[in-house]
Specification:
The protein is mainly β. It has two domains: 80 residues, no CATH class; 54 residues, no CATH class. The C terminus is likely disordered.
Length: 151
């Protein structure tokens, strides 16, 4: 299966559709003409993130395309929306970097970006996610995961 993103005239991603392997080589033509969807379609890879392929394959266009992402033809890359005004585009990954590196992980806590102070704030899971309940001992499941460390 191959994924193709439809983009508008400004490069904004409108949607992503899946095309069978037998039509991958002609995805644009297949989607626009055979299916009658029109538009401009660019291949994207579900396994590509920050310029790396998750399985060691060849990355395609730096990042998997998603709604509100932008296709930059000069970089031949899909770029996610800028999460905060202070974050800057990393030219290598085509993703956004905070102006201050995220601190190291601390068990039971997450780091939340604070744009007004341009800094990271450490919060417990309970503070960051009201209603969060840690897994009970003896319950099988994922143990020791880091969870989300900021947004």
């Amino acid at each position: 299966m191959a994924h193709f993103a439809e983009i508008d005239s400004t490069g904004k991603v409108l949607r992503v559709l899946v095309v069978g392997d037998d039509q991958q080589h002609r995805g644009q033509d297949f989607l626009a003409n055979d299916l009658g969807l029109g538009g401009t379609w660019i291949q994207t890879s579900y396994n590509t993130f920050q310029g790396r392929h998750k399985s060691g394959g060849t990355p395609i266009r730096k990042n998997y395309a998603g709604p509100s992402h932008t296709y930059d033809a000069d970089r031949d890359a899909f770029i996610p929306p800028q999460p905060f005004p202070s974050w800057v585009l990393n030219e290598d990954t085509c993703d956004w970097d905070p102006p201050v590196a995220r601190p190291a992980y601390v068990e039971g806590y997450v780091w939340i970006w604070n744009e007004p102070t341009v800094s990271w704030i450490q919060k417990s899971y309970a503070e960051a996610y009201p209603g969060y309940r840690p897994p009970s001992q003896g319950v099988q499941g994922v143990q020791g995961t880091q969870g989300v460390q900021g947004t």
